[in-house]
Amino acid sequence: MAAQLPLSRLFASLQPGDMMNIAADEQANKPGILIGQKGGREVQDENITISKEIERKTNAYQMDAEVCVVFEQFEKLQDICNMIVEKLDSSVCISSPHFYHTSENMEKLRRQVCLNAVSNARRKAQDVCRLVGQSLGKAIIIREEEMKEWEDQADCVSSSIQHKIKSATIHAASKVSATFEIKGKERNKKNC
Asked: What family is it from (predicted)?
């Protein structure tokens, strides 16, 4: 079972004119508002970090801003990147995303894989009971024997997004031992 796509980081550098465009377009004067409003509920304020640097150049001030955003869905990252490039054109520089897994997501993956393994064991036990004319009872013992996690190994040194996603995808497998109670076939008897 493969994990969901990992979290991604987006870095965008904005130029002074861009800051004015964002403020005018979004009725606010912070660059993160563009991402926050477009991103909806998927991009919360705590997932946006903004670093600003103001520098005096001859008779004007130049402000550079770096916006770092954490996404949980790769599609949302792509939508926002496309929107930023459309609005800000060549004045924006968007870095490649950095993929990683949070410890909470890894724990969620491990739990789900173990639950799937137990469900598969129960289904197999039901099939065997049906084959021999019995019915399956409750679980007596369930024990996780082994949990394995692995990442795809990089075949080549490609820097494409698809390759980065594949390299960052975590696979997990769980081996469980389960003992179930076996009940005799219940027959419909009428009371005399």
From this structure: Belongs to the IRAK1BP1 family.
